[in-house]
Amino acid sequence: MKLTEDNYVEIAEHAIQNLCMQKDKRGKIVNLVTTSKIRNLLAMTAGIYNEVVNMQNDKLPADIIGRINYLKIRFVYEAGREPLVGKLVEEADILKCLDEIKGSRSRYILFSRYMEALVAYRKYYGKLNGMKDE
Questions:
Q1: DSSP secondary structure code for residue 24 in this structure
Q2: Alpha carbons 65 and 62: distance in angstroms, whole number
Q3: Closest CA relative to residue 111, chosen from 76, 71, 61
Q4: Residues 46, 40: Cα–Cα separation, whole Å
């Protein structure tokens, strides 16, 4: 499903809810990615956002596109390094969302808001489910 201004909050909530319901082979609920890990992903996103938000043109310059491509590689690395991050990246379709930016300022801002929504729902549902909040 493609992110829009109308659906990104709902998609983020649904992704986190799905992660909250995942169980291991013994039927025990699997922990969510820690808030500190997901905040690190958001911080990487925010660094670019702070530059993009003040731009007037919707077409992003080549250096910003390069940073977004590098951001994707960092998400892939973190997903491979930490299984819980990998589950988040997969469930939230983050790599696909990054691909959909395609040099568009408005698409990047939407992606950044989506990441913020994921962090917010992780914090909210994590507490409801009594999960550690590191």
A1: -
A2: 5
A3: 71
A4: 10
**CA-closest candidate to residue 125, choices 41, 40, 18:** 18
Tokens of 15: 């992704």
Per-residue pLDDT, averaged over 107-117, amounts to: 97
What pLDDT score does 128 carry?
Answer: 65
Among 5, 3, 9, smallest CA distance to 119 is for 9
Number of helices (H) and strands (E), helices first, in the chain?
6, 0
Alpha-carbon distance 97 to 107, whole Å? 9
pLDDT (tens digit per residue) in 71-82: 999 999 999 999
Q: What are phi and psi of 103, to 5 degrees?
A: 80, 15
